[in-house]
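User: quick one, sequence for these C-alpha cells?
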C-alpha cells in the first residue's frame, strides 16, 4: 500500500524518540510506499488535491534501529495527488488547522484517513471530553465550560474542594493549565478576565474542572487502537509544577493499567471507534479521563523500550486490515456489477 504521513517536516523528526518515525519505519520495513507532507504543503493543482511530498525511496535492506534508519533513508521531493494514496495518517501537531481539513474533505471518500475527519473535527479541543455526558462525574472530573465569568466565579465559590483547575479550551502541551485555590480568591477575578476576555474585544471559552487528588503523583497516558488499550506510561510532573506533560518538564515511568483504567477504556472505546478516532492517546488521572489527544499522540518509542514491545507493528497491522477491507469491498462490488452487466 501507499501511505502519506501528514506531519511536521522530515528534518524536524527526533530520530530517537519520535512515534511518527516508528510508524514510518514499520511501513518502510513492510515495503509499503511512504511519503510525508506537512499541512503547509497541501496544494490544489488544476482542481485536484496534491501535496509537495517527501518520498522515501524504496530500500533493499532497512536498518532495525530508528536512528540508523533515519540516517540511511534516501528521500526525494515530489508533487503527488492525495487521492492516489491508500492511507493518510494524521501526525501533525496541534492546533488543528481547519483549512487542512477542507483539503482532506476532497479525498475522504478515496483514502482511509487516521483519524477520521469527523473525529478530528469533533475532538480537536477539550470540549469533546468535557461533553462526554457523564453528569455524575464517574469517568470525567466535574467540568464546566463557559465564557460567563460570573458563572465560573460562582462555581469556584460553591466548590466543596479548595483546589480547581482552570485551562483554555484549545490548549495543548500543558500550556495555560493552572491550579487555582479558593484561599487565593483575590486573584481569581483577574485570572478569569485574562483567560476569557481578549484585548481586541473577542472572548474565549475556558474550562473549570475539579482538581483530581493525586495528580501531583502524575497522570497516565494510555494509547488506544481501535478502542482498545495497546500501551501505557506514567508521566510524573517536575518538582516545581502541577502539570505532567513531558513538554512541561514531566518525566515518564512504567505503568500497568489498573482495573479502573481498564474499565474506563472499555467504556469510552466504542465511542472513539464510532467517531473514527482509531489511534488516540488519553490522559487519565485517578482513573478519570482528562483529555483525548487525537492529532499526534506519542509515547510509542518509550513504551517499546520499557516493555520490549513493538506498538507500531500493531498500528500498521490495523491500518493494513482497513485498507484490505476497502479493497475487498471494491472487488466484491465490481464482481457483482459484472454479473449484472453480463446477465
Ligand atoms: N482536573 C485536573 N486535576 C489535576 N490535574 C490536572 C487536571 N487537568 C489537568 N491536569 C494536569 O495538567 C496536565 C495538562 O492538562 P490537559 O488537560 O491534559 O491539557 P493539555 O492539552 O495541555 O495536555 C495534565 O496532564 C495534568 O498533569
Ligand atoms: Mg494532556
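Assistant:
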Amino acid at each position: 500500500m501507499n501511505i502519506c504521513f501528514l506531519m511536521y517536516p522530515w528534518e524536524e523528526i527526533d530520530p530517537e524518540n519520535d512515534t511518527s518515525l516508528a510508524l514510518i519505519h514499520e511501513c518502510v520495513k513492510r515495503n509499503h510506499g511512504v511519503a510525508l507532507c506537512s499541512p503547509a504543503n497541501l496544494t490544489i493543482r488544476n482542481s485536484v488535491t496534491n501535496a509537495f511530498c517527501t518520498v522515501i525511496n524504496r530500500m533493499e535492506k532497512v536498518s532495525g534501529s530508528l536512528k540508523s534508519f533515519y540516517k540511511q533513508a534516501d528521500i526525494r521531493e515530489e508533487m503527488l495527488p492525495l487521492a492516489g494514496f491508500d492511507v493518510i495518517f494524521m501526525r501533525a501537531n496541534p492546533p488543528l488547522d481547519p483549512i487542512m481539513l477542507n483539503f482532506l474533505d476532497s479525498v475522504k471518500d478515496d483514502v482511509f484517513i487516521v483519524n477520521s475527519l469527523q473525529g478530528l473535527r469533533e475532538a480537536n479541543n477539550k470540549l469533546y471530553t468535557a461533553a462526554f455526558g457523564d453528569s455524575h462525574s464517574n469517568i470525567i472530573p466535574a467540568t464546566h465550560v463557559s465564557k460567563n465569568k460570573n458563572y465560573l466565579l460562582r462555581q469556584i465559590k460553591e466548590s466543596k474542594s479548595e483546589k480547581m483547575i482552570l485551562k483554555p479550551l484549545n490548549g495543548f502541551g500543558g500550556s495555560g493549565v493552572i491550579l487555582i485555590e479558593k484561599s487565593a480568591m483575590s486573584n481569581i477575578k483577574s485570572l478569569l478576565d485574562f483567560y476569557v476576555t481578549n484585548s481586541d474585544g473577542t472572548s474565549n471559552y475556558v474550562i473549570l474542572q475539579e482538581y483530581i487528588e493525586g495528580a501531583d503523583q502524575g497522570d497516565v497516558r494510555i494509547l488506544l487502537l481501535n478502542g482498545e488499550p495497546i500501551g501505557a506510561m506514567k508521566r510524573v510532573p517536575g518538582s516545581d509544577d502541577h502539570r505532567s506533560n513531558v513538554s512541561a518538564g514531566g518525566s515518564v515511568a512504567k505503568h500497568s493499567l489498573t482495573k479502573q483504567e481498564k474499565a474506563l477504556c472499555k467504556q469510552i472505546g466504542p465511542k472513539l471507534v464510532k467517531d473514527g478516532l482509531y489511534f488516540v492517546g488519553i490522559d487519565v488521572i485517578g482513573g478519570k479521563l482528562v483529555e483525548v489527544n487525537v492529532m499526534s499522540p506519542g509515547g510509542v518509542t518509550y513504551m517499546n523500550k520499557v516493555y520490549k514491545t513493538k506498538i507500531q507493528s500493531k498500528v500498521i497491522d490495523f491500518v493494513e486490515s482497513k485498507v484490505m477491507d476497502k479493497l475487498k469491498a471494491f472487488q466484491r462490488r465490481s464482481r457483482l456489477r459484472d454479473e449484472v452487466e453480463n446477465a
